[in-house]
Design goal:
By secondary structure, this protein is of the alpha+beta class. It folds into 2 domains: 110 residues, lambda repressor-like DNA-binding domains (434 Repressor (Amino-terminal Domain), Orthogonal Bundle), CATH 1.10.260; 132 residues, Ribbon (Umud Fragment, subunit A). The protein has 9 helices and 13 strands. A 9-stranded mixed sheet has the order 6-3-7-8-13-9-10-11-12.
Length: 272
């Protein structure tokens, strides 16, 4: 697990009566994995959530099948509740630089804040062994989504990224590219710069290993003027020409250092 930059925020917790949720094998596996990461024993967890060691032991052995303590467990283990409940494969370390917890209630507001973007907060992307085995068993891969609206903030392989992952068939992806799936990202909600060739509702596959402009007029994902966009690029003697297929948008020639290539668009999925 790497070192994360997390902004310092005061936390505010609401008193909400928790529902009893099922203690599934996957949820229990994630609790145990997180306890192992933090060096927690059952006594530490019991003390943290204000329960007896006997109750924790029964939970761990699944002698009881439901509990109201998932929210408290997530807070004590300083991890986001959706990950603990196996509702997402994105694991977030819910603590600031001082080690203070960040509450679930404040997380959405925090992620949308300008302070968050300036802090270049990194989300720890963890797919535990059980999840990896399940994906492998079904021949699936997990792809991250490029965030065209941000030049900094949540980063994945040094590329602005959104939290939600996308799952694809490995065989389908191999039909588009031989590149390792870990280097493939997706883009959606691309705007109108490439209409009619590409529509705003299209989902694009981007090869992030392709960052050198060695072919003219290919379609690329780029960062320009602090935001992302999709455009054709053409090297010229005066610089790089940014070409939008939308006839209402004029071409622009910029110095190579004025833009950053995030990857080449290698495929497109369209809904009808």
């Amino acid at each position: 697990m790497g070192t994360e930059n997390v902004i310092k925020l005061q936390t505010a917790r609401k008193a909400v009566k928790a529902k009893a949720l099922e203690i599934t094998v996957e949820r229990l596996t994630r609790i145990k994995a997180r306890m192992s990461d933090l060096g927690f024993g059952q006594t530490d967890l019991a003390n943290g959530i204000g329960a007896s060691v006997s109750l924790i032991n029964q939970m761990m052995s699944r002698k009881i099948r439901r509990t109201q303590h998932f929210g408290a467990i997530a807070r004590v283990l300083q991890v986001n509740l959706p990950w603990l409940l196996a509702e997402t494969n994105e694991r977030i370390d819910m603590r600031d630089l001082d080690g203070n917890p960040i509450s679930e209630e404040i997380l959405p507001e925090m992620m949308a804040s300008e302070e968050f973007r300036k802090a270049r907060v990194s989300l720890v992307v963890i797919e535990d062994d059980d999840v990896q085995k399940e994906l492998s068993r079904h021949d699936m891969v997990c792809l991250r989504e490029i965030d065209l609206g941000a030049s900094q903030g949540i980063m994945y392989n040094e590329i602005p990224a959104k939290v939600r992952p996308h799952f694809f068939s490995r065989a389908m992806l191999a039909a588009y590219t031989p590149t390792d799936p870990k280097a493939i990202m997706v883009v959606q909600r691309i705007g109108d710069t490439m209409q009619p060739t590409l529509l705003d509702s299209d989902l694009l596959l981007v090869d992030t290993t392709r960052t050198t402009l060695d072919r003219a007029d290919k379609i690329w994902t780029i960062l320009y003027c602090g935001a992302g966009m999709i455009a054709r690029l053409r090297p010229t003697s005066k610089g790089v020409r940014i070409i939008c297929d939308n006839p209402t948008i004029a071409d622009e020639v910029v110095e190579p250092g004025e833009l950053r290539i995030l990857g080449e668009v290698i495929g497109m999925l369209r809904r009808f």
